[in-house]
Amino acid sequence: MKIKILTFLSLILILFWGCEKEYDNLIENFNPDYQVKLVSPSDSIQFNSSDSLVTVRISFSSSTNIQNVYCFVYAVDNTQLNSSPLYLLDNGNLSNGDDVANDGSFANKIPLSGSYPNGIYNIKYFVTDISNNTKQVALGTFKFDNGQANFAPVISDDVVDPDTAVVTSTTIILTSIKVFDQNGLSDIDKAYFVVYRPDGTTSNIQNFLFDDGNILDHGDQTAGDGIYSLLIQITSSNAKGTYRLEFRAKDRGGKFSNIINHNLLIQ
């Protein structure tokens, strides 16, 4: 009956939709009086610009000892979408997505924007019981498709400074690239480089660059400006010769950027 009711609601209220399922991943089975039965959404949500709301729901075996229920929603980049708790209600009010009052199913709606990045989103569900104890009781996930065409990122302005070094002791080298994505910087999954030794061999290890404003650890001056940086150390134990640093970026839709190669001469 719950699935049929939700299907009906999705036709008249929601232009996003995701399947709900029996829930078998409890955070803590601490009170048999309100065990989690299901959470929703738990499958895929397709954005439709005519309505930005998606219904978030959690159902319990019993709600007798529940005082309130709320959740926080996190985007694929771990950005928290609701700054304050989204309270889920069991009031039978269709405006907040609940169809039957006092049936142990709590719901409310949250807007998702077409500017949000594609990928896996998380919902953390919390319960405050009648004794004022609050605990996280479930973690739900769903896949969000913002409906936008996915463009590959573009990298430019590569920096290896210095790119010629006479090494007698530890030398710190700044590496960085500028990353642009038509889908926004939130669509960037990673920026990195792979090192090729003077003999042409490589371990294929991806050295990740950061756009976090952490100048001490990563050499990045400003967070969120699209310039990704990393500080690396060169010592006298490194083989002498010309190394090749192969820079690249990848977005959350799985598309890769162009490749930029930059030589580093160690003498």
Shape: elongated
Share of β-strand residues: 35-45%
CATH-derived architecture of the largest domain: Sandwich
Count of DSSP-assigned helices = 1
CATH topology of the largest domain: Immunoglobulin-like
Identify the CATH class of the largest domain: Mainly Beta
How many strands in all? 17
Q: Looking across the biggest beta sheet, what order are the strands in?
A: 3-9-8-5-6
State the end-to-end distance.
Answer: 73 Å
Structure, explained:
The chain has 267 residues and is mostly beta strands. The chain folds into 2 domains: 2-145, Immunoglobulin-like, CATH 2.60.40; 154-266, Macroglobulin (MG2) domain (Immunoglobulin-like, Sandwich). Helices cover 4% and strands 44% of the residues. The longest helix is centred in the first third of the chain and has 11 residues, at 2-12. The chain is elongated and about 75 Å long.
